[in-house]
Amino acid sequence: MTTNDRPRPPSALEQDVRERLAALESRDVETLRAASDYLEELAAWKVASAEAGSGADYGEQSEGEPDPDEYPADVPEQANVSVKEIAGTTYHYYQWREGDRIESKTVQR
Fold first, then answer.
1. Strands, DSSP E only, in 5-99?
2. Cα 2–20–57 angle (5° rounding)?
3. Beta pairing, strands 101-108 & 80-86
4. Cβ pair 75, 66 in contact under 8 A
5. Is 18 helix (H, G, I), strand (E, B) or coil?
6. Distance CA 67, CA 83 (A)
7. What CA–CA distances, in Å, run from 20 to 24, 33, 35?
8. How does 43-80 read in b/e, with b if 16+ C-beta sit within 10 Å?
9. What pLDDT digit, counting tens, does each position of 70-109 carry?
10. Running DSSP on this structure, what letter comes out for residue 11?
11. Mean pLDDT along residues 50-54
12. Is 21 exposed, middle or buried (0-12, 13-18, 19+ CB in 10 A)?
């Protein structure tokens, strides 16, 4: 590869992912290699998790997430859930896409 053949993020990626990758372009070589190593390890872990049927793949329920039966009535089952504890109070953050919009709801538990 020559200096004129600068790589670009694949156009098939979602816009937000391409923007995050573009933000890395200004980083030093060591940081880029560390990020690359991490992403390779993460991809291998996801493949191994999917093959093992552990449910740890992206978008699937993992430890700490509520059962779908516990989702609020106005939150779709495909919503991603983040569980955070702040000052001893547990919050469930639900986020999902409706068309071009991202919807969210926070529930104190």
1. 80-86, 89-98
2. 110
3. unpaired
4. no
5. helix
6. 12
7. 7, 16, 12
8. eeeeeebeeeeeeebeeeeeeeeeeeeebeeebeeebe
9. 777 788 878 888 888 888 888 888 898 888 888 888 888 7
10. T
11. 68
12. middle
- Cα gap 24→8, rounded to integer Å: 11
Q: What digits encode the pLDDT tens for the residues 19-37?
A: 888 888 888 999 888 888 8
pLDDT attached to residue 65: 54
Domain boundaries, the chain: 6-60, 68-108
**Regarding predicted confidence, which is higher, 2 or 25?**
25
| Cβ neighbour number for residue 29 with a 10 Å cutoff | 7
For 4, which DSSP code? T
Distances (CA, A) of 105 to 5, 11, 39, 101: 44, 31, 30, 13
Local structure of residue 67 (DSSP, 8 states): P
d(CA 30, CA 8): 19
